[in-house]
Amino acid sequence: MDEEDTRDYKQPCPQCAEVNWGISDEGKFFCKSCHTVIEKTKEADVSLCFAQNTKIQSLSRGIKRKQTNEKGWEWYICEGFQFILLKQAESLQALGLNPMIKDEAMCNFWRRYLQKSRQAYTKRPYMESQTTFRISESSATSSEQDSLSQTISLETSSASESDYMSDSSAVLSSESAASVQTGSIDGASYAKLWKIGDLKMSMPMTVAFCYLSLLWMRESITLSNLLWLIFNDCIPYANAVEAFPEGTKLYGPDIRIFQPRSFPDYEDVMKKTLALGKFLDLPRFPEITEKCFLHPHILCMKYMMEINLPDELHHWTHRIVKKAGLDKPNVLTFDPVHKRNIYYDVEAAAIIIVVLKILFILDDKKEWWISRKSAVANRKNKDKICFDFQKWYNTMKICIDEAKQKVDEQLARYTWITQKALYYSQKSKSGILKKKQMVGNLQMQFSKLAGTAPGAGNEAPSSFFFNWEEQNTGRTCFHGHSLEGFVKHGNKTTPFLMKYYWLSSLKKCTGICEQQKHYDKSKYPHSYHFVLSLFSFLLRVDESVIHQKVGEIEKMVFQIKAKKKKKKRKHRRTKPA
Fold first, then answer.
1. pLDDT, tens digit, for every residue of 488-498?
2. What is the greatest pairwise CA distance in the chain?
3. Are 102 and 90 in contact (CB under 8 A)?
């Protein structure tokens, strides 16, 4: 019957430009390809009516559908972020992490955020407020605080996907009318209802929720690993709106909220994580012990394997960690009350750099002199190979240049255009659809010319960027090389070049300042800058951040030595003559 009634209507669908019409139970035409409903209705046959000159109001007594036009369902901004967090948690579970990361950590953190920000689990949601307000710890009533303590018990909960998506919609006001310029109910007024300084949800804030959940579960993913997974689309971020349900339409302001144009920044996510933990009034996190992946002993071992350094350096990193007091659980455990971020991966990289400076000085002189001695020793004794810094430098420089080129090419090819059509208004819909189709055709043509298959699946994610255990790579693996040739000097077990050690901080800071302003690579040796840039690439963090951590660790290690010398001098002066 549908084919007979629609065969004379040849107009293309305004959504997908297909001519494939059907008729709903209500008598309206809809596209069978994209299920878009239009205003055209089925023409009624008057001869079938019992009375003439009567107007047929409907053709069916079926229940009216909730989605009757292109605006889609009624939904709130917090529901969109809730759906994105759900998909991100499921992606983390798919990577092999603890399956309770969604229910025990992410879900409870999100529920607490909704109540703290008065978006849900409260008698008066912020949408019902006529004036703007600032979020404060005293914004919830005593009864709300009691219910909150039960909600955020941080115990195992069983929240299904349907419950997870309907928590906020059950408590938010449904009396607001949807705006013409936005698909969501509160999209147009979302930015106005939140003053500057409030912890407003955004796409980088979803990464902070993920990282906070990883810290709570003590998982083996650092923030740098998390950012690398996001860059490789293993975790929904740039194109997260593609996973939205079909009825969740995005227009205008919604696109600016959910469609980012850049990848999250390391420092920005760290600041948001600390602010989020403080805002949620979270307790002290589970302790980081030596068995945890985030402990500096394990992270130092991991990064030394990745940048192809000898295994004997583990002994020196252990000594530096102990000397700086970075192996204690009270120092390593995240506690939002203390208002201090813990850069686990950056601190591990800084520890390795301090060890390299102790052993090789990295002043563009001593490390090359040591390399010449190692090369002579290796020619005389081929049974036990000594570590050659110059040979390691040449090997790693080739690898890092190739890796940077691949990442730059991947970033240049990255398209910020989603498969789902997003437009700011109905007027611009046709133009955007044409541009999107043209871009898709160009990508298809270029992929054929380049000989690459479009839409090929990504490789399995790995926490190691470099793998030195593969055979037939044609590059030297330095893991088994020895440090004995220059570490021992006579009967001493300490490096004999320690007297040449130089501090990374050229200028001491007084008060609160930005350490980034004090790093100028032209004022530092090239070898030091090379190691710094190597870790900067691996961790996806600015070089100045690692440089700052190197200065902090040097202060903790060498300040203790200076204090001991002062005590000895005072003791000698007080001796009687």
1. 655 555 666 77
2. 130
3. yes
